[in-house]
Amino acid sequence: MSQHALRNFCIIAHIDHGKSTLADRLLEATHAVDARDFQDQLLDDMDLERERGITIKSHAVQMDYEEDGVKYTLNLIDTPGHVDFSYEVSRSIAACEGALLVVDATQGVQAQTISNLYKAIEYNLEIIPVLNKMDMPAAQPDIVKDQIVDLIGCRREEIIEASARTGSGVDEILHAIVTRIPAPGGDPEAPLQALIFDSVFNPFRGIIAYFKVMNGTMASGDYVKFVNTGKEYHADEIGALRLRMSPRQTLCAGDVGYIISGIKTAREVKVGDTITHVERPCSTAIAGFEEVKPMVFAGVYPVEADEYEELRASIEKLQLNDASLTFVPESSAALGFGFRCGFLGLLHMEIVQERLDREFNMDVISTVPNVSYKVYTTKGEVLDVHNPSGLPPVGNIDHIDEPCIKAQVITQSEFLGAIVKLCLDKRGTLKNQVFLTTDRVELNFEMPLAEIVFDFYDRLKSISKGYASFDYYQSGYQRADLVKLDILLNGENVDALSTLIHRDHAYDLGRRMCEKLKELIPRQQFDVAIQAAIGAKIIARETVKAVRKDVTAKCYGGDITRKRKLLEKQKKGKKRMRQVGNVEVPQSAFLVVLRLNE
């Protein structure tokens, strides 16, 4: 295949604007899939993706297309739209020369549309705007076209009207891909340089790395080297990523493909690494991807303590396929040994937990999620604290800085007041508001990251009836009046339920946590005191009353001292039991904080 007939492109859009459905139509139009194998959202091959109707992983697939007697090979990468999976998008964009920017004709340009577009422009991709869902009665093509023209500065006639559901406009899109997106650059004769943009673990074949050849040529059986790790392997099999893996003898500059070389351990493959030949190595490695910065941290522990090593192996395999997941070992008095994991958001955390359960049969407990803080001590040290239990004693803390974000919300103007109130309640500062049209407004806020971790996105969606879109990026740290809120059961601190919170919100959260735990902790043979404390000061308390046997039931009439004697005996027994008794905290209690607002 000549390099001039190659086209590498991705599809970028906001959530639910029709990326995966458009990918289905392109696969049908190029006959890349048999009619009997076809199903909706064909590239979303994970059960979780199909159940939730969202794309979680980027998926690469190769198609053949012929126009005016010229045969083209198209490499398509379908990308996720949710803000929690934006790292997947940036890696897919690096393997492409062009992008289809899909915009919903009924909703117009949304926050993630803008965010993903900026990523594509950063990599100098050719942008083809596509106006999707033109078959919908609520479509507003003229208004949305104006928004797209304002956003990317294209001409109105360059915007392709399409409907991924009915298949209209697909031929125009394919024509635009081969005429407007440039062929990949790179010199096939130069030393080999291939960029790894993804990898998966296969239990039978080891680790399969997906790459794009930037320069040079790779042949099956070549002796190759991974520059970052310095490891050398034989390329047992290389090939193109069609709907199923399709082996090839050679892959040249511009090609997207996979390599199987019998790699067994996850640490040997790093996303962003460069593959080159051992005999004729390239002089410089390709600049990979920026290191991902986790936004939310939570402890992940095995339910059975002896499954710790199994959990480590499972997280390592999962990390291959999800490079934005980070983890370090940690231990907890309540839960034993586990890992402090970094996630890009709460949805990402939920998906990782679900995948550990489904793909690796790992039953795990996760602790209260929190963000990373910078703690300045009285000795002048600066500590990064990801876990409230890692805080130094209160007397040694000078002040704490918390991470802040710049948030962008695009919404209908009728929901403006409610959304501004929500953001101000979350300690946000309104920076500016711009009316994009008479009834659509863009709001820019600065707010603490900790305030959006739990339920911000859900509340934003419910306030705006699903219309508001939300995007954010971290903007730095600022000083805050934070306190550590501890939960005590019978005077024992449960470190897994500790959380760092702003002083103004501490009393309210402590009260609600105590009330919720009172419902969840089963009654014991003795009273269980549930307390919320800041340092030595108790700010809230609830009591789970003991299960009591009526010891005086058989005493009818007679002397009162007999009853008193039996009650005293019972009281001593309860006191002794409290000293030796343990309170088991059920799994549901660790999820309680997430659902306090339901």
Give structural notes.
- Helices cover 26% and strands 34% of the residues.
- The protein is built from 14 helices and 31 strands.
- The strands form six sheets. The protein has an eight-stranded antiparallel sheet with strand order 11-10-16-7-8-15-12-13. The protein has a six-stranded mixed sheet with strand order 2-3-1-4-5-6, sandwiched between helices.
- Helix 7 packs across helix 8 (346-360).
- The longest helix is centred in the C-terminal third of the chain and has 21 residues, at 560-580.
- The radius of gyration is 29 Å and the shape is globular.
- The two termini are 57 Å apart.
- 42% of the residues are buried.
Summed up, what is this model?
The chain is α+β, with helices and mostly antiparallel strands and 598 residues long.
- Helix count? 14
The end-to-end span amounts to: 57 Å
Shape, principal axes of CA atoms: globular
The major β-sheet equals: 8 strands, antiparallel
CATH superfamily of the largest domain: P-loop containing nucleotide triphosphate hydrolases
Number of strands: 31
Write the layout of secondary structure elements.
Elements: E1 6-13, H1 19-29, H2 47-52, E2 59-67, E3 70-78, H3 86-94, E4 98-104, H4 111-122, E5 126-132, H5 141-152, E6 160-161, H6 170-180, E7 193-202, E8 206-215, E9 217-219, E10 223-226, E11 231-234, E12 237-241, E13 245-248, E14 250-252, E15 256-260, E16 274-277, E17 296-302, H7 308-321, E18 326-332, E19 336-343, H8 346-360, E20 364-366, E21 373-377, E22 382-385, E23 397-412, H9 416-425, E24 429-435, E25 440-448, H10 449-453, H11 456-463, E26 469-480, E27 482-489, E28 492-493, E29 499-502, H12 503-520, E30 528-534, E31 537-544, H13 560-580, H14 587-591
Parallel strand pairs: 1-3, 1-4, 4-5, 5-6
Antiparallel strand pairs: 2-3, 7-8, 7-16, 8-15, 9-14, 10-11, 10-16, 12-13, 12-15, 17-19, 17-20, 18-19, 21-22, 21-23, 23-25, 23-26, 24-25, 27-28, 27-29, 27-30, 30-31
